[in-house]
User: What shape does this take?
Amino acid sequence: MLTYSQFAFVAALITAVLATFAYFWAMAAGHRAVSQRAPRRQRVLVGEAGDDLLDDLDGPGAPLNEPAAPAYSTMSATTLARIGTRLTWLAIAFLTACLAMRMAATGNGPFVTQYEFATSMAWGILVSYAYFEWKYRARTLALFVMPLAVVALAYAGTQPTEVDPLVPALQNSLLLTLHIIVAVFAYGAFAVSFAAAALDLWTPQKWRHLIPKPEVLDRLGYRAVVIAFPLDTMVLVLGAVWAEIAWGSYWSWDPKETASLVTWLIYGGYLHARVARGWTGKRAAWLLVIGFASVVLTFVGNAFFGGLHSYA
Assistant: This one.
C-alpha cells in the first residue's frame, strides 16, 4: 500500500508541475493575443455587485465595444487555462489517493512526519485554490499558488517516507487529526491570500492587463483570510489542549508554538488594520506577504530550532 501511495505522490507532483506550466503558458498566450489584436473583455462577478474579475486569460482590459479577438488567439489561452484547471483537479485526486493509502497503511492520519505534513499542506493549498477558482473564477491566482504547491511537494519528496511507531505525544489520534487537518485548510487559505497579494505587488506592468484589478485582488486576499483566520484560531486552541495532554502544559513557548502564535497575531493585525483602520491596497498586501512568511517559518522552523515539535 505504501508503494502505491508513493506512485500516487509522484503522479501528483508531475501533474502539478504540468498544471503550473499550463497556467503560465495560458498567461503568455493571453498576452500575445492582446499584443496582436484588440482583446475581448468579459465580466465575471466576484461575490458581489461591482466586482469585475477579468480573469479568463482572454486579454481583459480593453473597452467593451472593442472588436473581439480572433478565435484562434483567445481560445488558445482559454483552453490552456482550462487544461491547467483539469490538471489541478487531477493532482488533487492523486494526492487524495496518496494520503488515503498512506493512512490505510499506517493506521493513523497522514500528519505525523514532515513528509506527510508537507504532502497534506500541498493538498490543502490545491483544494483552497480550486475552491477560489470555482467560486470566483480567479484563475490567475494559480500563477503563485501552483508554484507553492509544487515547492511543498518537492520538499516532501526530500523527506524520509518510512513509517515509524508514533511517539507518545502523537498517540491521541483524534486530537492529532483535528489539529493538523484544520491547520492544513488554514494554511491553504493563507496561501491563496498570499497569491492575491503577490499578484498585486509583483506582476510586471506589461502583464497587469491580464490580472484582476488591484481592488479585486485586495478583496480576494481578504476573503481568504476571513476563512483562514478562524481555522488558525482553532489550530491554536486544539494545539493547546493537545499539549496539555501530551506534555502536561497548555503552553510551553516551544518554537513551533511561538511561530504559530506570531502567525495568528500578524493575520489578526491584518484584519484589524483592514476593517478598523481602512488599510487596503499595497499596505494590506504586504501584511499578507509577511503573514505567509510566518506560515512558512511555522511549517519548517522546527527543523532549525528543534523543540517539542522536533519529531515532525
